[in-house]
Design goal:
By secondary structure, the chain is an alpha/beta fold. It has a domain of 187 residues: Vaccinia Virus protein VP39 (Rossmann fold), CATH 3.40.50. The protein has nine helices and seven strands; from the N terminus they run H-H-E-H-E-H-E-E-H-E-H-H-E-H-H-E. Bound molecules: S-adenosylmethionine (SAM). The site of S-adenosylmethionine (SAM) has 18 residues, from loops.
């Protein structure tokens, strides 16, 4: 929720070409949001990629963050995005070419990265773990590919932090519960630090940002998707749904709507 589209749009099994345009539009909307921009800035500052270093972005989407890392490591370094979705990979390639970036993109999976052991200086991995039922293994993969002293920025949403206000609390709880069920690993954000520690990495810093919607605008595609699902599952009545929609509309008209979800980030390093 928050400034995001439904997470189901990003599931790795959701890869046919007809989804690509919707995925790209959603990722671009999120990239423009203040919360994502601030957390990304924090992540890049923490990683502090240097000229000549080797950088990897796991689940690189449209390639925005590996382009940023490519600029930092310069042409003396190496910057590769691993992205299983061919449509996103092609868009990322095109955008990198248009921007004159040396970033490259390859297919691959977070659970089996196409990279040798201890080959990478800096890893970026943003909003991928929420899609992975076996995210512990992805943390182990990150530890495997990092060289001793190498750093990772691991960022993800925790869907249990979704807030929707106003509305009848029990109706709101059903809708925010629906947001939880849209991701394979909806509590990804709170697990990141423990997963990196369990993989043997040292934690350097922790960060977070709430992604807050425009208080004057209801994000109807998301709210309707959750509302209709709740009615179809007989968790709320049509009347409760309609009252919620009216409450949200009225709140937005007076600039008092609150919709948010919180993202968390961890900067960690592999011991020397
Ligand atoms: C919400 S998008 C985030 C994209 C990008 N990291 C960003 O923050 O803009 C989730 C990304 O994870 C990728 N993804 C899903 N399953 C994956 C997996 N098993 N291994 C690697 N990437 C995966 C998707 O294709 C998509 O690019």
């Amino acid at each position: 929720m928050g400034e995001s589209r439904p997470t189901s749009a990003f599931h790795s099994d959701n890869m046919d070409a007809s989804h690509t345009d919707r995925l790209i539009e959603a990722l671009d909307t999120q990239a423009a949001s203040a919360g994502v921009r601030r957390l990304r800035d924090w992540g890049h500052q923490g990683l502090a990629a240097q000229p000549g270093e080797r950088a990897l972005d796991i689940g690189s989407g449209t390639g925005s963050e590996i382009r940023a890392l490519a600029a930092a490591v310069t042409s003396s370094g190496y910057a590769v995005g691993v992205e299983p979705n061919p449509g996103l990979r092609e868009t990322a390639r095109q955008r990198a070419a248009d921007a004159g970036s040396v970033a490259r993109f390859v297919g691959g999976d977070a659970l089996a990265l196409p990279v040798d052991d201890a080959d990478i200086d800096v890893v970026w991995c943003e909003r991928v773990f929420q899609h992975l039922a076996e995210s512990d293994r992805a943390a182990e993969e990150i530890a495997r590919v990092l060289r001793p002293g190498g750093r990772v920025a691991l960022l993800d949403t925790d869907w249990a932090t979704t807030i929707l206000y106003p509305g009848e609390p029990e109706v709101v709880a059903v809708l925010t519960g629906g947001a939880l069920s849209a991701a394979a690993n909806p509590h990804a954000g709170r697990k990141l630090v423990g997963q990196l520690a369990a993989a043997g990495l040292e934690i350097d810093d922790l960060g977070s940002q709430a992604l807050i919607q425009d208080p004057g605008k209801v994000t109807w595609p998301l709210v309707r998707m959750l509302g209709e699902k709740a009615v179809q599952s007989a968790l709320i009545t049509e009347q409760q749904r309609d009252r919620l929609y009216a409450d949200l509309t009225a709140a937005a008209e007076r600039g008092g709507l609150h919709m948010s979800v919180t993202m968390f980030g961890v900067i960690a390093r592999k011991p020397r």
